[in-house]
Predict the structure of Glyoxylate/hydroxypyruvate reductase A.
Amino acid sequence: MSIALILNSGRAEEWKLEINKHLPETRVEIYPDIQNYDEVEFALCWKPEAGYYAHFPNLKVIQSGGAGIDHLFPETIPSHIHTCRIVDHMLKSDMFEHVLTCVMHSMKNFSAYSTEKRKRHWHPLVYKSIGQTCVTVLGLGEIGGDVAERLAQLGFKVNGWSNSPKNIQGVISFTGIAGLSSAVEQTDFIVNVLPLTDATRGILNHEFFSFCPMGTVLLNVGRGAHLVDDDLIEAIDKGQIAGAYLDVFQQEPLPKEHPFWNCSSIFITPHVASRTNIGSSVLQLVDNYRRMAAGQPLLNEVSLKKGY
């Protein structure tokens, strides 16, 4: 048996080094430099090319290199191949810190003060406090649920919207299309942490923004395909959305000609809200490899039908 690393991230050597520390007797190879494709039963993947799994006739497990699986072409993966994702405390913690930073940056008017500083203008502004602020989190899975719970612990009013009802302390749970409008109708911030599925693709669109109060702030840390770009620009122009903090995009890197770059109300980060921590995540990969070899249930296996 051997492990193939199919990674479009520039971190393959780092992954290989960490895996070899725990599995020194196992051959770990970086695609396409594979000695024997027939021997590969386990593949670690991040944004592979379409049909990648077809190269490995005995492949049993595809391990995502991150929390999502949408980049793995899940709709085409054969049903006999098990697909798993990373669930790591560092991913959750980093995401919470990023979200909190964006929310506080907006609440306390730091962008406006940066503009005023360039004009040498002393102009105090009204700000909101945590207890006065409502945040709606879209997606209450491992990461979104953690973000919602920790925001509630800080004193924010928190709504959560998900596919099924959730019981998270301090978080009001909403479900279904009808529940979506109710979840956002009195919110100040919307944080999208949804998985990308056929049902959620393009969910941040003109209709959705019409549900939001004037001046709502959007944070998209889910996937770029959740957002209809032109609809966001329109919503900002109308004042429906006061600003947006975007970490993920339809195309990455974001093309230089994209209108987001010219919009002063949009803050861009290059998909860094929550990066996989190889040092901690490698333990899940190693555990799953050993479970596969022993014929045991895998950790964090996902439903290809649901997409999460």
Summary: The domain at 89-268 is CATH 3.40.50.720 (Rossmann fold).
